[in-house]
Amino acid sequence: MRTFARPCVTLLFVLAVLVSVPGCATPAQIPAPAPATERVAQVELINLSDCDWRVAVALPDGRVTRALLLPARETSRVELPGGDYEITQTALNGIAGAGATRHFPARLDSGESYRWRLATLLAAPTGNAP
User: Is 60 exceeded by the pLDDT of residue 35?
Assistant: First the structure.
């Protein structure tokens, strides 16, 4: 009988250890999907000037993904998927000629926040003669 009792005690001890070890008796944890704010870049456009701006955000192949009009002294927020973009910003009043438009590439990373200030020293306040 002694030989039979010893394996039972050993087996019960091994089972008790296996049940008490984390991960052995519990199902594997499945990671939750990332919140939407981590999958997009958040961009805040702040117009510090007295002129209106048109801002177009396009993919490198030229397809416009977002176009917006930003009135004088207004702020707008947009969310864009992370990636490479071509941005064109145009001052709509107060500036004439080539200086009114600026075109540049930008890299926006998912999960990041960006603050983009639009300002010019060349614009006359809206409603005033140049």
Answer: no
